[in-house]
Fold this protein.
Amino acid sequence: MQIKNGIFYVGVNDHKIDLFEGQYDVPNGMAYNSYVLVDDKIAVMDTVDKNFTHEWLDNLAKVLGQRKPDYLVVQHMEPDHSANIAKFLEIYPEAKVVSNVKSFAMMKNFFGNDYQDRRIEVGEGSILSLGQKELHFVTAPMVHWPEVIMTYESQNKVLFSADGFGKFGALDVEEDWACEARRYYFGIVGKYGQQVQAVLKKAANLDIEAILPLHGPMLTENLGYYLNLYNIWSSYGVESEGIMIAYTSVYGHTKAAVEMLAEKLKEYGCPKVVVSDLAREDMAEAVEDAFRYGRLVLATTTYNADIFPFMREFINHLTERNFQNRTVAFIENGSWAPQAAKTMKNMLEGCKNLRFADVTVKIKSALNDESKKQVDDLALELCQDYKEQRPETANKNDLTALFKIGYGLYVVTSKDGEKANGLIVNTVSQVTNTPNRIAVCINKQNYSHHVIKQTGIMNVNCLSTDAPFSVFERFGFQSGRTADKFDGFEPMYSDNGLAFLPKYINAFMSLKVEQYVDLDTHGMFICTVTEARVMNTLPTMTYTYYQDNVKPKPKTEGKKGYVCKVCGYVYEGDELPEDIVCPLCKHGAADFEPIE
Ligand code: FEO
């Protein structure tokens, strides 16, 4: 099968396999992909599993016709791809092996030969010309083994991505890509997010029109979709809104609590509740779900002065894959010396950026009134933002929202008649309390100032400490006059018709402008509160927290001049102009400091 100009598929489908890599259930089999590039020279990209030697060699022979291959490119030495290297080199004695130096050491281990006399070593940036086609090699250590290389073919703009972008499942079975690609990713490469991020950064510099992995379908369209998912997975981001409950239950009492919690979560507006019985369901599926959603509930019993074995195994899978950036809650059950919650929390101690729920459900043998109340309290705690996002369940008059105002950073949203707008401000304060009045200062240069002056309404979104730098880039470093600030970031709406942020905020207030004070460079809007919702209990993003934890360190090495303390923009020059306005965040000279 020709995929692109001079690129042919010669891989095989495996429906006999019971467990991939000795542990993963693959109900729809597995594909071992291999490709042939035909040009003045011919290169074969990887071999296949040992059970398919002749099927693969037949596929290869059909594409080659009377010609012989010049090169075998070995991108990865795991036996599902490398098993037939020795056989291939025996059949095609003129062909050379092209690979990373680390692979040749592995060939010696697998086949007793490191092909000193017929090898071409390649590394980062090496190029091999086939004629019209040039192969550019990119190292990809630990995606999934240390020797992995990927290959960019520049004529067709194709990236051969080794295990990257692969999935479980044979190619003759139609199924959703993301589900089995996610299970594959977190099972097999999940630990190495940092290394995948490094490869994605290299890929961003290439003009890619197709990705050809060693497992799963060839990706020839809509590449942004796949790249975006890989970016979320490898940065341990949250892919989908919802809550996962992973549990074990010996006699059904823990399960009863889990079922009650699942019902309550749905009642309080959780958009998706996924429940996994770790003793009975696929462990790899449970692991992928733990990484897919942002909130995880672990429910188990105390067992042999420890926790139930399936839960221990599950948590081990999470920690060895660098589980992070999530909210975790516990349900424990114990009849005489309960300690499961403590044990589970201890197991997660080394994980980065986990927030543990305030409420832990403690069951002594079976649910009672006290533990049922804890289930309800936990559901409310985990779903507070979901509950507050829905008009029918929100408490729209929660004036404790005003306690979220600190010397913080806010997204002020407005609407210019057509589209939702928003900007970052750091000047919000409560000025009176009978009635509650809030003052918001906005630089007159900002489009939002103009819009709010005309419409007289705005929403103040109190950013919480989970807001990433991309929120500041989105709302702070571009103008709403020219950019759609909610492009790709679906907002929700309050009663005044204005947008509020569906995440990264702990509260918002809808304001109506009562008075305007002209402050020369800025305008101060003095407003009454028409709606106030508290979304969660996360701390407010203070200016200091932003500076210390969110803003990337500015790249000032080797530069002379001044750096904007707000966004990191570097002005190069001996003197800072007094009237400078930062082109990124629009702050003035007072917010610049000399580069040390
Ligand atoms: Fe498909 Fe890491 O081997």
Summary: The pocket of MU-OXO-diiron is lined by residues 76, 78, 80-81, 144, 163, 214-215 (CB under 6 Å). DSSP finds 15 helices and 35 strands in the chain. The mean pLDDT is 95. The longest strand covers residues 505-519.
